[in-house]
Amino acid sequence: MEKTQEIHEIVIVGGGAGGLELATRLGDKLGKKKRANITLIDASPSHLWKPLLYEVAAGSLDSYAERLEYLAQGHWHHFKFRLGRMEQLDRAKQEIGVAPTFDEKGEEIIPRRRFRYDTLIIAVGSVANDFGVPGVSEHCIMLDTPSEAREFHRRHINACLRANTQTEGVAPGQLTVGIVGAGATGVELAAELHDTTRELSAYGMDQIDPDRSLKLLLVEASDRILPGLPPRLSGAAAERLAELGVEMHVNERVTEVRRDGMMTASGKFIPASMMVWSAGIKAPDFLREIDGLETNRINQLVVKPTLQTTRDDNIFALGDCAACPMPDGKNVPPRAQAAHQQATHIAKAICRRFRGKPLQDYVYRDYGSLVALGRFSTVGNLMGGLSGGSIMIEGAMARLVYWSLHKMHQIALHGWVKTSMTTYAHFISTPTRARIKLH
């Protein structure tokens, strides 16, 4: 009797921008035709595009309205979703271990499990890197997940409600938000908070004078904000933030965080009543040399140009958790556009493996950088213009391009028709929605 060939098991760990796009593509290409079983594993039951977290923190985006349920996406696109957090890898058995899941009361709802794979793709993203600075975990909020962004928003709203109803005036420093790290997340959060606090005042919190009561601080160890972007873009962003009244402290490395502020290496103390840490990233700690795979100093899995890990061709990595080399010796930057490109590349690579063809190298294409500076302002640069270099853009055009990045992600998940319909529905419902989430 002829032996039935087992179906290929593809396991994707991490449902961020890259992981979810990859699961969707492979589900449509291979899962629908029963050529492979596609399983997506994530510690959260729903997906929110990570570049939107600063809007959730500022209150201008309702994360519950914008989230996408993994189970539903799997049903529509022919892959299975399993809730849980990866904690172990057994390359010899080709299995991963997933930690048990507990409810808010600490009761176990899903036991510890193991999943077998033929091909494993790790796309667990990144988390904030506190660099071992004392006091960060106790006094700062990270913006790695929607729940953390919502926690910051709740604290900020509560602080504003308290200030608006107290009998005495708002004390100096009572509403001071200190943001450590002036990369894209920190800069965008500062600008968005400037706008949403003014909305609060317009909605009736008239005891809060946005220009006097609220103070926004950016603290950056480099000599300029947005140090990873071109100087002219950084300069334009600094000018705009100065116009908004954001206080910028550059060349100031935070060495300690206290309940009421931050100490820097120069001996300066910067007071703040609420603090956000966005000073750097690292891959999750569980990846550090996991079952002998090569990792770098920030826990990223070192991959070959094919995006396969250097010590196991059956394991791929993409996005922020992957250290992918470029011809100039640097690694691919941790950006959403890179995760999107890599998801597309790996989907094609796996299909090539099924056909017995050699894998091609991934080549990063930099389409530029955009930073939103509040509701009506965006600055950025687009790569590959008519001159072959970069073109700096500002204003309405930059805002439109920034908005289109999210739409591209939605198109990859839902297609053109559904994305067009949901976009139209969003616009016609705008007049009946509050500009800022008030709880």
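(ticket continues) Second input and output from the same batch:
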Amino acid sequence: MTLPITEATPVRFAASLPPRADVVVIGGGVIGVMTSYFLAKKGLSVTLLEKGRIAGEQSSRNWGWVRQQGRDPAELPIMVESLSLWKSLSAVLGDALGFRQTGVLYLAKTEREMQGFADWLPHGRAHQLDTRLLTAAETTALLKGAVAPWKGALFTASDARAEPWTAVPALAAMAQDLGVTIIEACAVRALDLAAGQVAGVVTEQGRLPCDHVILAAGAWSRLFLARHGIAIPQLSVLASVAATEPMPEIFSGNAADDDFAFRRRADGGYSIAPGGSQHDFFLGPDAFRSFRAFWPQIRTGLRATTFRAAAPKGFPDAWTTPRRWEEDQPTPFEVTRILNPAPNLKTLGTVQDAFARAFPGLGRPKLKTAWAGMIDTMPDVVPIIDHAPIPGLTLATGMSGHGFGIGPGMGRVVADLVTGGQIGHDLSRFRFARFTDGTKVAPGPSL
């Protein structure tokens, strides 16, 4: 499968709408897919509805990192579980996942960055991670031909990589084999409510009764919830990525500094992207409504952000996107089946230049293809994993660019949250009410 997945990509999952379901999952990214899988393992009848294609948005457009290193402390134990699940899933699905434990390397140009790495180390040690600080000499020894003046690095050898555009559809096929009904090109227009609680969903193909709904709609979650009177401070940023032509191997894993990031690909090239959380941000009505909530992020990441005047037509926060619609009429989710923004080629050009400076023996990497995705993010850069104010609705959204790697573990957690099982982790940092109960909402000690 090649990127990007678009509306022209053939529909692979085309089941018929069933007469009813125990649980409906909205959104066919990795979180929705893995939640459906674990619910089906519990014996529930599950229908997963995706307005576009499985993994059509950020779940196939991300870097492909499966990392424990640098996680928010509240996410870390779930990520440790997730890595274990990736290993067991890979044993079943094989090369379809492209899973390899080749390590994650964070590169530091300054002593301040090295101190930040050192400050995070206790969180890794608390979960018995193999994370360690490397000297400058140890760092360059890992990277063939590197000449960049890095002070050192943070390295977790057990961390991994996978191929998003093949992995998530393969996981969806596994869920389907377990009994999950998956329907692509079937948008959910609204919740079907009775006496103030979930009775089902209204889709473009008709009504589907169910007992419970899980919203895992990524960048579209805020728009969907607003129609039902639920407000969340979720915004989306554009992240550009490129795949290079095949190149000699300089490092088999994933690495990043504040200029560029790269991951070895199964085809012999590298996925490259801006480092340092560089992104493009579109100014839409929701952006202005959420300015105060996101100010801590804006203030610290101002230099890494390219502001754009307005989101393209059809995007969730575009000025022309309707915030209200009728259930019997096409919705914004049908107007834009897949968010397929153009990558920022200027930004990717600077990435190519930075790569060439760090590895002069290889020269400027030639790009095979480039793409962009919209990352759904929260003010504190951790998701909402909680029941919503509407009984029967659970939220699993706002993964803030961390969803691919943590997907299997988070899917298991959400499945147990819905069914009253043993969650095994403290979810209080991810609660819905943190935005209204006076909690100071700010990013935690992650990298």
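Agent notes: The mean pLDDT is 95. The domain at 21-435 is CATH 3.50.50.60 (FAD/NAD(P)-binding domain). Closing as not reproducible unless the customer responds.
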